[in-house]
């Protein structure tokens, strides 16, 4: 589901300028899940994370999506 959402975000980014995908982890388990996909934590709130669109594009290319 995450990969599908990232692919859709990448497709939409060609129409709407976007710098990153932002998520909010509900708990430590979810936090670790997002960290596995190279999401970065915001300094102000460790449960809020972002993944730059460039990283999304690289991930989609790696997975051949």
From TrEMBL:
The UniProt keyword set, sorted, is: Acyltransferase, Transferase
Protein name listed in UniProt: Uncharacterized protein
Q: From which organism does this entry originate?
A: Anabaena azotica FACHB-119
């Amino acid at each position: 589901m995450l990969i599908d959402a990232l692919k859709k975000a990448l497709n939409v980014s060609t129409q709407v300028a976007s710098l990153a995908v932002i998520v909010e982890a509900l708990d430590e388990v979810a936090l670790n899940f997002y960290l596995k996909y190279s999401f970065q934590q915001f300094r102000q709130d460790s449960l809020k994370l972002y993944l730059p669109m460039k990283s999304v594009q690289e991930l989609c290319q790696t997975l051949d999506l």
